[in-house]
Write a structure and sequence with these properties.
This protein is of the alpha+beta class. The protein has eight helices and four strands; from the N terminus they run ααβααβααβαβα. The protein has one domain: NADH Oxidase, CATH 3.40.109.10. It has a four-stranded antiparallel β-sheet with strand order 1-2-4-3, sandwiched between helices. The radius of gyration is 18 Å and the shape is globular.
Amino acid sequence: MEFQDVVRKRRMHRKFTDEPVPAEAVDRITRNAVRAPSAGFSQGWAFVVLETAADRDRFWATSTPDTSERDMSAWLAGMRTAPVIVLALASKAAYLRRYAERDKGWEDLDESRWPVPFWHVDVGMASLLMLQTAVDEGLGACFFGVPPEHVGAVRDEFGIPGEFEITGVVAVGHPADGGAKGSPTRRKRKPESEVIHRGGW
């Protein structure tokens, strides 16, 4: 598929068929993720791939958000159909250690030097590569977060080391009709003239 077609066709899918995702596609999706840029080539990421029904059930059992304040039943019903779930993790410590190495010039692990948390930025870029690779494979995908009150339970359930934080989750599968409608169905895309500024604001 042409790259511009991949960019144009990428959207968040929230419902999937029961057709399995080929192992080769899952491997390509995760291999491409680790081709993302990372500050100082820190590579402070890790990915937990959940492909069995039992593992996916464990994920949903520990991560399902509280729906008492907001009805998320349609979203959950669709998202639970995803045959592949990838937890995208970031290690802040890996970045702090990397920039304390001799070639980077910092001698301590002071987090205040970082203008933004690049560990999450880089994992976000890796996640986008997963989303784009899914499109190129003829699949659909969705990036979403784990509710803060459930992060601890997910970490414990899957033995995620304390050094790693959950940046987000990528669900992958063959797209199906239906599922919860996303914000683009309720909001227009902003015109380029409003968001692209040349030579200054």
